């Protein structure tokens, strides 16, 4: 592992175990429990393709500053990956829900597990933050296909563009059905998926319906072919699932509040969350920070999902994410020292470290914000 | 003068609760929040021993709520935050300061990681040293005062006290960032750009300091108008 910064005696011994660089072919498959607490480097090509938008904004800043993207291997992500390895993909997909207090690392664990799926060659359907679809939408058009629904063309076309970047390999897949968009435009049976996505990106008006069509196609095809060409596993990753069953802050033209069911994107995503298809996995994470009308102290699935959401998501596998323990805190502290991030001389002393533990309570996001200006 | 001081030194019991902003008696000592280890008696010089004894006996002023006993507390940064503060919104001012320090550190650490090993020694990544050094580079050495002589007022070069120099440097930094920058950039961005420029002796604030020095040099002839 590279160490170019200032070193102290104990740091030297620990730094050899700090970062484990995996070889190109063995991404994530060899990750074991004993690597817990160590940092795993995400290759830059993968970050560009898989996460053009999916990582938390402060982590993106960190990648830019340190010139590398390193994720800490933590028990929730390890648990998720072990379940993914052992699941039976001929049966309906399992739903995994990451829950925990604010700033404990749910989104990062989700991204880690998603990277595992990507490196195994799965098809990724990633909604980085479902809350962005239920609030602050500038354009809310009445849907072209169904009278009581509303479209969000900007969000839908943005999502289609990102989907295209992530899943370039799968764009030549053949699709099954015939879709009619307007009197003159329709996509015929047997056309590749790439054309469908281009249709959605170019014609903003029908982009939300295109998203629905894409999701439907993927559901039908995921469990279809068993071996050989055309077989793929589908990973559906949604951050902020509680947005699908909560309230929106959008208003219709007659100034009444919009329900989530009336939005095309949300309606289609809810269909995706049901386990009536096979050949993949549904990874989700709850989030209070972007949610609308939820108190800050709510973090359990029953509180954030509400009755309706819980009934829809049940049965699911809950995975709890908590603050750093001592070993992980040590590892994070050493990583910051290694990257020359902790500059204040007092923060490098033992007393300063105790102060950091006290001030942040070993919460990952608070520790990151503290160390930013020290 | 002796009579008024003697009046203050008359027997006075601290039965009232003194607020920070009222005038303290001169024999009140400033609070020292640092947690420095006590130096044993033998190593103190006689003046320091006297000072220690005074501390045990005389009353001490109330500490500010922004002072902490941790070593992360920096009096210069606190002063700068107070100067930036508007309408008593200390939370906002402190937030801007921490964001500024973070931005400075990010820019420098990014440069550090992208440069080859030979040049890494020269890049200063510690935002606190950058801030202190930038402030030093902005402090004027000599100032101008307006003196009226024979009906006309002249700009006379005058020495400045340390406090005045520090105040002028901070004031110039803040006004420069508030007025002369693009309106849509955040304050912390503007501040970090100015501080990094001042660190290398470039930028508008250092230019203003140099202009003041040149004016003082030009008005050298009037130096003897100063009587203090």
TrEMBL record, chain A:
<dbReference type="InterPro" id="IPR008092">
    <property type="entry name" value="Ribosomal_mS29_met"/>
</dbReference>
<keyword id="KW-0809">Transit peptide</keyword>
<dbReference type="GO" id="GO:0005763">
    <property type="term" value="C:mitochondrial small ribosomal subunit"/>
</dbReference>
<keyword id="KW-0689">Ribosomal protein</keyword>
<keyword id="KW-0496">Mitochondrion</keyword>
<keyword id="KW-0687">Ribonucleoprotein</keyword>
<dbReference type="GO" id="GO:0003735">
    <property type="term" value="F:structural constituent of ribosome"/>
</dbReference>
<dbReference type="GO" id="GO:0006915">
    <property type="term" value="P:apoptotic process"/>
</dbReference>
<comment type="similarity">
    <text>Belongs to the mitochondrion-specific ribosomal protein mS29 family.</text>
</comment>
<dbReference type="InterPro" id="IPR019368">
    <property type="entry name" value="Ribosomal_mS29"/>
</dbReference>
<dbReference type="Pfam" id="PF10236">
    <property type="entry name" value="DAP3"/>
</dbReference>
<protein>
    <recommendedName>
        <fullName>Small ribosomal subunit protein mS29</fullName>
    </recommendedName>
</protein>
TrEMBL record, chain B:
<dbReference type="GO" id="GO:0006412">
    <property type="term" value="P:translation"/>
</dbReference>
<dbReference type="InterPro" id="IPR036823">
    <property type="entry name" value="Ribosomal_uS7_dom_sf"/>
</dbReference>
<comment type="similarity">
    <text>Belongs to the universal ribosomal protein uS7 family.</text>
</comment>
<keyword id="KW-0687">Ribonucleoprotein</keyword>
<dbReference type="InterPro" id="IPR000235">
    <property type="entry name" value="Ribosomal_uS7"/>
</dbReference>
<dbReference type="Pfam" id="PF00177">
    <property type="entry name" value="Ribosomal_S7"/>
</dbReference>
<dbReference type="GO" id="GO:0005743">
    <property type="term" value="C:mitochondrial inner membrane"/>
</dbReference>
<feature type="domain" description="Small ribosomal subunit protein uS7">
    <location>
        <begin position="66"/>
        <end position="220"/>
    </location>
</feature>
<feature type="region of interest" description="Disordered">
    <location>
        <begin position="32"/>
        <end position="52"/>
    </location>
</feature>
<keyword id="KW-0809">Transit peptide</keyword>
<dbReference type="InterPro" id="IPR023798">
    <property type="entry name" value="Ribosomal_uS7_dom"/>
</dbReference>
<keyword id="KW-0496">Mitochondrion</keyword>
<dbReference type="GO" id="GO:0005763">
    <property type="term" value="C:mitochondrial small ribosomal subunit"/>
</dbReference>
<keyword id="KW-0689">Ribosomal protein</keyword>
<protein>
    <recommendedName>
        <fullName>Small ribosomal subunit protein uS7m</fullName>
    </recommendedName>
</protein>
């Amino acid at each position: 592992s590279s160490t170019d910064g200032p070193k102290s005696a104990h740091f030297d011994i620990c730094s050899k175990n700090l970062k484990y660089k995996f070889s190109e072919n063995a991404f994530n498959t060899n990750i074991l429990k004993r690597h817990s607490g160590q940092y795993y480097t995400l290759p830059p090509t993968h970050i560009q393709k898989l996460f053009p938008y999916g990582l938390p904004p402060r982590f993106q800043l960190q990648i830019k500053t340190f010139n590398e993207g390193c994720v800490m291997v933590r028990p929730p992500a390890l648990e998720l990956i072990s379940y993914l390895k052992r699941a039976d993909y001929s049966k309906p997909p399992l739903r995994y829900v990451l829950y925990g207090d604010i700033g404990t690392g749910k989104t990062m664990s989700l991204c880690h597990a998603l990277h595992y799926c990507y490196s195994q060659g799965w098809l990724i359907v990633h909604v980085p933050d479902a809350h962005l679809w239920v609030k602050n939408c500038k354009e809310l058009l009445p849907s072209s296909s169904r009278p009581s629904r509303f479209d969000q063309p900007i969000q839908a076309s943005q999502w289609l563009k990102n989907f295209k970047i992530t899943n370039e390999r799968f764009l030549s897949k053949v699709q099954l059905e015939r879709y009619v968009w307007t009197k003159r435009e329709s996509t015929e049976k047997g056309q590749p998926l790439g054309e469908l996505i281009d249709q959605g990106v170019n014609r903003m008006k029908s982009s939300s319906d295109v998203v629905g069509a894409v999701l439907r196609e993927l559901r039908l095809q995921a469990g279809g072919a068993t071996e050989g060409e055309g077989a793929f596993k589908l990973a559906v990753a949604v951050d902020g699932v509680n947005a699908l069953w909560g309230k929106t802050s959008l208003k219709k033209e007659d100034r009444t509040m919009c329900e989530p069911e009336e939005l095309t994107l949300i309606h289609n995503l809810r269909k995706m969350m049901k386990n009536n298809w096979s050949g993949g996995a549904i990874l989700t994470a709850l989030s209070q920070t972007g949610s609308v009308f939820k108190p800050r102290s709510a973090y359990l699935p029953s509180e954030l999902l509400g009755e309706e959401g819980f009934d829809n998501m049940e049965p699911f596998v809950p995975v709890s994410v908590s603050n750093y323990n001592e070993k992980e805190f040590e590892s994070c502290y050493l990583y910051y020292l290694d990257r020359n991030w902790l500059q204040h001389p007092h923060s490098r002393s033992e007393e300063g470290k105790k102060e950091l533990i006290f001030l942040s309570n070993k919460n990952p996001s608070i520790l990151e914000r503290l160390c930013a200006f020290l | 003068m002796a009579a008024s001081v003697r009046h203050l030194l008359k027997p006075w019991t601290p039965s009232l609760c003194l607020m920070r902003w009222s005038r303290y008696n001169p024999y009140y000592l400033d609070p020292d929040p640092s947690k420095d280890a006590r130096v044993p008696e033998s190593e103190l010089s006689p003046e320091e021993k006297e000072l220690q004894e005074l501390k045990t006996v005389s009353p001490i002023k109330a500490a500010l709520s922004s002072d902490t006993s941790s070593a992360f507390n920096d009096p210069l940064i606190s002063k700068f935050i107070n100067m930036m503060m508007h309408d008593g919104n200390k939370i906002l001012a402190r937030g801007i300061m921490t964001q500024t320090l973070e931005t400075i550190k990010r820019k420098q650490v990014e440069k550090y990681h992208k440069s080859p090993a030979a040049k890494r020694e020269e890049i200063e990544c510690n935002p606190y040293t950058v801030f202190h050094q930038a402030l030093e580079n902005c402090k004027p050495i000599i100032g101008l005062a307006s003196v009226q002589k024979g009906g006309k007022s002249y700009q006379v070069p005058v020495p400045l006290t340390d406090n005045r120099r520090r105040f002028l440097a901070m004031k110039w930094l803040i006004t420069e960032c508030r007025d002369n920058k693009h309106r849509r950039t955040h304050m912390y961005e503007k501040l970090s750009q100015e501080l990094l420029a001042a660190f290398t002796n470039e930028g508008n604030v250092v230019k203003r300091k140099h202009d003041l020095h040149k004016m003082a040099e030009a008005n050298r002839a009037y130096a003897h108008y100063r009587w203090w």
